[in-house]
Specification:
Strand order of the largest sheet: 3-2-1-4-5-6-7-8
Shape: elongated
CATH topology of the largest domain: Rossmann fold
Order of helices and strands: EHEHEHEHEHEEHEHEEEEE
Radius of gyration: 21 Å
Low-confidence stretches: none
Number of helices: 7
Helix content: 25-40%
Distance between the termini: 48 Å
Number of domains: 2
Number of strands: 13
Mean pLDDT: 94
CATH superfamily of the largest domain: Formyl transferase, N-terminal domain
CATH architecture of the largest domain: 3-Layer(aba) Sandwich
């Protein structure tokens, strides 16, 4: 059941997000980058007779614009310019997988894991021309455990948080309940950090968390070998490990990398 008659354009590769939005708004367009093509999203657009706009380059996107009541963005990899934002009557809402302004950046779920957070805050904000700024509309909390993978947390955001945030966003927009997002540090991308590690110079718990996030970006390199997974060494099972891949960390914790 549609809860708002607003016409919206959805940006991003998630068909689940588009499906959730379709139960709350009238979708008149779906925009997605070709490099993030999702067959299910395209099929959804065809089945619902929604116009699909493929984006092949940053230059093409920069020169494109759409007109509707609202834009909705989730997992979209390109930056909107002011002209594009202003072409929507109510602006563009973005779902950001982190608490703003503390977790600004592209790889916020990974940083939450590395920092040992016990819950992940997912934010819905009306964007402006600055990255991860604008007006905060709503937040949704997702509990985290030490064993959660980045992929599992990202699925929870897509499957659960998006729906709740859209409902909260509609209420905030109608009630005028918005908060300006203040300045905060921009976290560096994890695909460019910790690519080469010396285990003797890092604590074992931190290395474990780093490995949970670096798996998505190709893992880490130690010497001539690449690793994507980390386990803590149990003496009673030492015979099951390859001794060449056991490392003693700065705090004395032994880890097995593979």
């Amino acid at each position: 059941m549609i809860t708002s008659e607003w016409e919206v354009v959805c940006f991003g590769p998630s068909h689940k997000f588009a499906m959730a939005a379709s139960t709350r708004f009238k979708i008149v367009g779906i925009v997605n980058e070709n490099q993030r093509f999702n067959q299910s999203l395209y099929d959804f657009a065809i089945l619902r007779k929604i116009k699909y706009f493929p984006v092949s380059s940053k230059e093409q996107f920069k020169n494109s614009h759409w007109r509707a009541e609202l834009g909705l963005s989730f997992g979209f990899g390109l930056i909107f310019n002011e002209r594009q934002i202003d072409s929507f009557g109510r602006g563009i809402w973005n779902i950001h997988p982190g608490k703003l302004p503390k977790y600004r950046g592209r790889h916020t779920v990974g940083w939450a894991i590395i920092n040992g957070e016990t819950e992940l805050t997912v934010s819905l904000h009306a964007i402006n021309h600055e990255i991860d700024k604008g007006m905060l509309l709503a937040e949704e909390l997702i509990p985290m455990s030490e064993l959660d993978s980045q992929a599992e947390l990202e699925r929870l955001i897509e499957n659960t948080a998006c729906r709740k945030l859209l409902d909260k966003g509609i209420a905030a927009e109608l009630n005028g309940n918005k908060t300006e997002i203040t300045d905060g540090s921009y976290l560096p991308p994890l695909d460019e950090k910790w690519n080469i590690i010396d285990p003797q110079k890092i604590d074992g718990l931190l290395l474990y968390r780093i490995m949970k996030t670096k798996k998505k970006y190709g893992g880490i390199q130690i010497g001539e070998k690449h690793y994507r997974d980390c386990q803590f060494v149990f003496d009673g099972a030492r015979a099951t490990y390859n001794e060449d891949d056991i490392f003693i960390c700065r705090d004395g914790i032994e880890v097995y990398l593979k």
